[in-house]
Amino acid sequence: MATVTFRDESATGKPLDEFTLPDLPERISARELVRLRVREEVARYNAVPTARFRGLVRPVGAEVELNGYRMGATRSIDWERQADIAERAFQSNGFLLLVGDRQVDDLAELIDLTVDPVVSFVKLVPLVGG
Asked: How far is CA 80 from the centre of its chain?
């Protein structure tokens, strides 16, 4: 099992946020990694909803803030909808996925998390989801 650090960075490389997940498979596809990241951040938000959501994809109705999204009324977020939006955003260059120092270009690519345990998401445009 691998422990992975998910890191958000600005387009200039400035770290914005990060969290670590233990007990992940040693090899995983980029698609599964993106979906896992979104599921985790949504689960954390849904467990303790607040007026602010920090995540890869902006929920519908939320307003962009510095390093996050203002939710207005607190509500649950559908992680699968967010993950689907994140996949489409990846495919349309809404964000870059870096594993270690290497850019991942294909969601089907298998990643060895024992070699590169830091996964960075570089947001290029605001991402809107559900």
From this structure: 13
Residue of 67, 55, 32 lying closest to 130 (CA atoms):
55
Q: Does residue 128 fall inside a structural domain? A: no
130 falls within a domain: no
Looking at every residue in the chain, the average pLDDT score rounds to 90
Q: Which residue has the tokens 């109705």?
A: 61
Question: Residue 37: which domain range?
Answer: 2-123
- Distance in angstroms (rounded) separating the CA atoms of residues 30 and 109: 6
b/e code 58-78 from CB counts within 10 Å (16+ = b): bbeebeeeeebbebeeeeebe
More confident residue, 72 or 96: 96
